From TrEMBL:
Keyword Disulfide bond among record annotations: yes
EC nos: 1.8.1.9
Reaction equation(s) it catalyzes: [thioredoxin]-dithiol + NADP(+) = [thioredoxin]-disulfide + NADPH + H(+)
UniProt lineage: Bacteria, Bacillati, Actinomycetota, Actinomycetes, Bifidobacteriales
Segment forming the signal sequence: none
Similarity annotation: Belongs to the class-II pyridine nucleotide-disulfide oxidoreductase family.
Manner of cofactor binding, per the entry note: Binds 1 FAD per subunit.
Superkingdom of origin: Bacteria
UniProt cross-references to PROSITE patterns, sorted A to Z: PYRIDINE_REDOX_2 (PS00573)
GO biological process: removal of superoxide radicals
Pfam families: Pyr_redox_2 (PF07992)
Gene3D superfamilies, sorted: FAD/NAD(P)-binding domain
Protein name: Thioredoxin reductase
Any single GO CC term annotated in Swiss-Prot or TrEMBL for this entry: cytoplasm
Amino acid sequence: MSDIRDAIIIGSGPAGYTAAIYLARAGYQPLVIAGVLNPGGQLINTTEVENFPGFPEGVLGPDLMDRMREQAEKFGAMIEYDDVTSVDFSDTTPGAIRTVRTDGGNEYRARTVIVATGSEPRKLGVPGEQEFSGRGVSYCATCDGFFFRDKPIVVVGGGDSAMEEADFLSRFGSSVTLVHRRDEFRASRIMIERAQQNPKIEFVMNTVVDEIHGDNANGATSVTLRDVTTGETRDIDANGVFVAIGHTPQTAFLDGALELAGDGTVIVDGGSTRTSVPGVFAAGDNADSVYRQAISAAGMGCRAALDAQMYLVETE
């Protein structure tokens, strides 16, 4: 039983590192399996973060995550840069030991597990998208809208998120062009009507973005639009390109081990972080399809750590 840990945290974004800080300060020495490609989560690919409390001058996304990691390690958290490939939560009795397996061939066992793997924004998959990511291309209006004050903005999508982002971005941009590939929106009527009543939003239907253009000095400068019915193309100015076509929760590795919602997020019990399996908790974007902000993920990581700590005390 000596190799059984008190807590394993799968994932290393704001939720994972915050959970690690709380559990480490409580003396549980959690193991954080941080991932190989993007330890630190989506903020690793973000430039300046201006809406995280405590940084009035802003902070670079990678720097913020480095500081969270250092804080977790300072209190005794252990970090492994590996990817979880499978879990064994089959014994659902309280106090049972959970097993986590990684791509590196390691097998870890723990009394509690926190799933904090986040989500991945769906990409357009067009030329220029990756090149100008963080330099004009964004997946979060709340995070980056301020940077495009008095500049032309394009929003891609047709759901509630796209409508909400277009409406929000109209406060900053000189114009907002909402591009949707179909002739009807998936968004709710109230969200569509709100966007239609906004004089700064122009709708371009039956159209897709074929390419994003720009340069090293200015970042994104324009996009090529293609009418899917006629095949005609045209370029329009765009310093900000906001992709709002949904997110994919990083929960596939669970393979049915936890109960998931229809969108792939882990189902938690009310305002807690308890999942369908006792001793397993979920926090961050993989359990949140609404807010998806660094600060809300960090708060949920705190709650997961406190839920896990309470569970450990109750099952000792």
